[in-house]
Amino acid sequence: MGSQLLAPGTAAARPTSDGVQAAPAPAPVPAELAALAALPEVEAVLDQLAAVPNFSAIAPPAATVPAPPPAATVPAPPPAAAAPVGATPWTAPTSQPLAVAPVSGTLTSAFGPRWGSSHAGLDIANSIGTPVYAAASGTVIDSGPASGFGLWVQVRHEDGSTSTYGHINETLVAVGQRVQAGEQIATVGNRGQSTGPHLHFETTDPAGTKVDPTRWLQQRGVPATDLSRMA
How far apart (Å, rounded) are the C-alpha atoms in residues 4 and 42? Predict the structure, then answer.
């Protein structure tokens, strides 16, 4: 009987045709009262009240199903740190040299006065077929026959200066071709007005004035040890 609640506020009993009074209809009970009725100490009292005449029993309301706990939320990842203002972006290192000695060999004639005239370049002696390299990166502006040199290659560099490779035995590049510092462009020869196999190496500044190739190379980072091999 403890599971039932007697409602003193129910309607009065109604007589039937046979003189027997019908049971009164149960009255609605607030949810708070029904919850109170579920307590053990209250159930004992309700069992006693159930025996009192003219009280109707009602079933307690259905148990309430608790709502499921909210789903756990995954915190958003922190935003990526912004690069400092003015920071220089990282670039992969490169092993490409700015300039190289154009050939190995023996320096037989330097830049400057020679035999009562001016020698405009370096003469570097070596055997025919020795590789000749572009002294710096640039674009080939001439490749082929040349008066006095027999055969030559000329390269214009990024700063507007030029380098010339004369008396070569053969050219390995064409006009308009892009070459890198240290790339082979020709071989040592003995063509034109030459006293023996060697490379005649000339350089000019951006204005077209011929300058000492030794200084031109040093200004572009060619180590002194590389130049000493031509001595």
Answer: 11
Please report where in the chains the tokens 């077929």 appear, as a residue: 129
Listed in sequence order, the residues at least 6 apart from 132 whose beta carbon sits closer than 8 Å to its beta carbon are: 102, 103, 153, 165, 168, 184, 185, 186, 187, 188, 199
pLDDT at 182 over 90: yes
Q: Which DSSP category does 189 fall into?
A: B
What pLDDT does 72 receive? 63
The structural domains of the chain, ordered by start, are: 1-9+24-63 (no CATH), 106-228 (2.70.70.10)
Cβ-proximal residues to 216 (8 Å cutoff; 6+ apart), any chain: 135, 161, 163, 203
- Report in angstroms the alpha-carbon separations of 35 from 22, 32, 48, 132, 173: 29, 5, 18, 103, 101
Average pLDDT, the chain: 76
Q: What is the pLDDT of residues 64-109, one digit of tens each?
A: 555 666 666 666 666 665 555 554 454 444 566 789 999 999 888 8
Please give the C-alpha separations between residue 142 and each of 139, 164, 216, in angstroms, as whole numbers. 9, 9, 20
Q: Global pTM?
A: 0.57
Q: Which two tokens stand for residue 78?
A: 């922190």
Bridge partners of residue 114, in order along the sequence: 117
